[in-house]
Design a protein that fits this description.
six-stranded mixed β-sheet, 2 domains, alpha+beta, Beta-galactosidase, Chain A, domain 5, about 400 residues, about 15% helix
């Protein structure tokens, strides 16, 4: 049986007015309840939204799991559009395992999905959604934790794991959205459009995005209790009509090929009804005794800018570090320092040097400079970014090739 619950970031009691959000979550991994309104990462929960029709940002979304069996045989599992559209619900609630649970602490509300999994009972899925309740600048995001492990006791090779979200950011004409890239937030964002601006606010000031925070395996945690891999395969925006609504379902081979090819961050040129795909990992193996864990953040902006969205992702990283992994960091630096421009492949090259020079001498606010921790090339304990760091990066790239220091620890 499918069960839905609604999480809200509104603090209990009589909170100050704020940009609080709500989201419908479920026991089969679909979120958004297919645009039911008021539970779609929108801001209508406390009446702070001036437009009563602006009650959907995230229409529907779910994880996806693909398995490449070779010779073009791709298994695909998902639950997006599985509430009322009649799409195949191939991630389902399992009758065995832990049950769904709602929890509330002094810092957040959380919904645990219970045991779910693929409809062939081969791969198990569990998801927890966290809604901060501290108000302020943590009111407009939610964190999702996704656990993937073997259900049948067998290894599963060549998997692609990620998420699909149909974004319907409020617009003056249907769900016509714009897409863009933020290197600082390492995300593809979605933006409302407004050609006439006759309403109570300009819809082009509205945004939504999913940003990848990190992943680890249970095996990795055995060796390092704070292990976290910040790298992900890629993210892209695409047209619903061209790529998502194909025969009222998803085409496995098509999705496998597109997610494999679209590494890094990929936007979409036209304004139309769009969806977003974030591929957490592609070609990854799952051993019988291992669990793969992925963290992401869902963010929406009622009235603001891309910079506000980036600030929200940064705030979410700090909040998750404090509340979900105490003593461990979700920081933007991964492995060694030097990836100043946040290349999703974690490559340190001439583009990082160019970005560093822009930051120090030309344009302090240049968006290419997305992670101060990565710029701490000389490894000083205070993470002060100065000419010494630039000198060390030049030395690494062109002179001594001596290894750069590891990322600063929390």
């Amino acid at each position: 049986m499918i069960v839905y619950d609604t999480l809200s970031t509104m603090p209990s009691g009589d909170p100050e007015p704020g940009d609080y959000i709500q989201l419908a979550v479920s026991t089969h991994a679909e979120c958004g309840h297919e645009g039911s309104g008021g539970t779609n990462l929108d801001f209508s929960v406390d009446g702070n939204e001036c437009d009563p029709l602006a009650n959907v940002y995230l229409y529907s979304g779910s994880p996806f799991i693909m398995r490449n069996n070779g010779d073009g045989d791709i298994d695909l599992f998902y639950s997006i559009y599985s509430y009322g559209s009649g799409w195949n619900n191939t991630i389902q609630s399992y009758s065995s395992g832990p049950s769904p649970e709602y929890a509330e602490t002094s810092s957040y509300r959380a919904f645990f999905s219970g045991r779910m999994g693929t409809d062939d009972n081969s791969i198990a899925v569990e998801q927890t959604t966290f809604a901060p309740t501290g108000g302020g600048d943590s009111a407009n995001f939610m964190i999702q934790k996704l656990d993937i492990f073997s259900s049948d006791g067998n290894p599963h090779y060549s998997l692609a794991i990620g998420s699909l979200i149909d974004w319907d950011i409020p617009a003056d004409y249907g769900a016509t959205n714009n897409a863009g890239i933020s290197l600082k937030a390492r995300t593809v964002y979605f933006q409302g459009t407004d050609s006439s601006f006759t309403g109570c606010q300009d819809n082009s000031d509205r945004y939504g995005a999913e940003a990848f925070l990190g992943r680890y395996s249970s095996r990795d945690l055995t060796a390092d209790s704070c292990d976290l891999n910040l790298n992900f395969h890629g993210a892209y925006a695409a047209s619903n009509a061209d790529e998502l609504w194909l025969d009222d379902s998803l085409l496995a081979t098509d999705l496998w090929n597109k997610t494999e090819a679209r590494t890094g961050l990929n936007t979409y040129a036209s304004n139309e009804d769009l969806f977003g795909a974030v591929t957490y990992a592609h070609g990854i193996d799952l051993e019988p005794d291992d669990t793969l864990t992925f963290y992401t953040v869902l963010v929406s902006i009622r009235e603001g800018t891309v910079q506000d969205l980036e600030h929200s992702v940064k705030t979410a990283i700090a909040w998750a570090s404090d509340n979900l992994r105490p003593g461990c960091s979700f920081g933007c630096c991964q492995g060694i320092v030097g990836n100043v421009d946040c290349d999703p492949e974690d490559i340190v090259d001439i583009s990082d040097l160019t970005c560093f020079i822009m930051r120090l001498f030309i344009d302090y606010d240049d968006p290419c400079f997305c992670c101060a921790e990565e710029a701490n090339a000389d490894g000083d304990g205070d993470v002060i970014i100065d000419i010494g760091d630039l000198t060390k990066l030049i030395d690494y790239l062109f002179i001594s090739y001596q290894p750069l220091p590891p990322c600063p620890q929390p």
